Amino acid sequence: MKKSHQLYFVKQKLTVYTFVLPAVIFMALMIILPIGYNIVMSFENVDLMNFTSKTKNFVGFDVYKSILTNSVFYIALKNTLIFTFWCLVFQFPLGFAMAMFYSLKFKMAEFLRGITVVAWMVPMVAVAGVFKYMFNGDIGIINELLVGLHLISKPIQWLSNGDTAMTSIIIANVWKGIPFNMILLATALTTMPTDVYEAASIDGANAFQRFTRITIPLLKPAMISVLTLGFIYTFKVFDLVYVMTGGGPGSSTEVLSTLAYRYSFTEYNFSQGAAAANVLFVLLSLVGLIYIHIVRKEEDQ
Q1: Cβ-Cβ contacts under 8 Å for 33 (sequence gap 6 or more)
Q2: What are the backbone angles phi and psi of residue 26, rounded to the nearest 5°?
């Protein structure tokens, strides 16, 4: 009997491993291997001349020193932080307000929420193309509206002006990010217990007190998750910036992801591109670790 039980458990484990194996292979080939190769490349001198060569010069941290002593890197880092900050400042409150609005019980709530989610489902490249056309200084609809409303006297060259290019891509990313924040927060709102609100109403709590003392505390874990995911998705944005401005004019909208791309596929300095990408990876990993720490702290409390 013992041998049969042992054989049964072994078969169970083999079955589980068989189902898990494809996912492990996919993770190894598509995620772990490229990350490892990227890390190795950042410690070597790899360019277009020796990319296919089997022997590459090991240079240690020289590549990292070269990008960290370049002023363009700090411009890209500053732009990335500014872009991420302002996107979160607008898209999270607006997404939260829309989640609260659609949580109300009215006839068109579900239909309107579904229409809003469509914006999130549109590919980022398509969103970037549409907004690039809208912000076109000569034929864009943004200038047409502003001139028609007499808010500006002449058209603005949004994407070719360093002072307005960043504003343009922030607006585009906020439009794309609002539905993401809304759907996650709306899902959290639907799982909140109604009896707590009923008890608070009986005790005489008004709407503002119920919102600040019940809704916000209960939504805190979901809000932390949404903010963390929003930070990660925004911080590593590439396609939106690349399609709309390409990091220009000059370096006014250069972010870490476009800088890594430019190093690798414009200047063909693959080592510097790998190093810049690794810096981005480390920064996002730190955000992930902070998020895990906060979640564990919340669970302990």
Answers
A1: none
A2: -60, -45
- At 133, is the secondary structure helix, strand, or coil? helix
Q: How many domains does the chain divide into?
A: 1
* Cβ-based neighbour number of residue 183 at 10 Å: 20
pLDDT tier for residue 169 given thresholds of 50, 70 and 90: very high
Tens digits of per-residue pLDDT, 47-76? 888 877 777 788 889 999 999 999 999 999
- The single residue listed with the structure tokens 């600040």 is 212
CB 204 within 8 A of CB 137: no
CA distances from residue 26 to 19, 39, 267, 294 in whole angstroms, order as listed: 12, 19, 31, 30
What does pTM read for this prediction? Answer: 0.88
In a domain, residue 109? The reply is: yes
Q: Which residue has the tokens 């028609």?
A: 148
Listed as own residue / partner, the contacts of 68-73 with beta carbons closer than 8 Å and 24 or more positions apart are 72/251, 72/254, 72/259, 73/259, 73/276
Does a structural domain hold residue 173?
yes
Residue 231 lies in a domain: yes
Task: Specify the CATH number for the domain of residue 88.
Answer: 1.10.3720.10
Please state, in angstroms and rounded to a whole number, the distance separating the CA atoms of residues 144 and 139: 8
Task: Tell me how crowded residue 176 is: count the other CB atoms within 10 A of its CB.
Answer: 23
- Which range marks the domain in which residue 106 is found? 66-300
The CA-based angle 125-129-134, given to 5 degrees, is 145
Is 9 part of a structural domain of the chain?
no
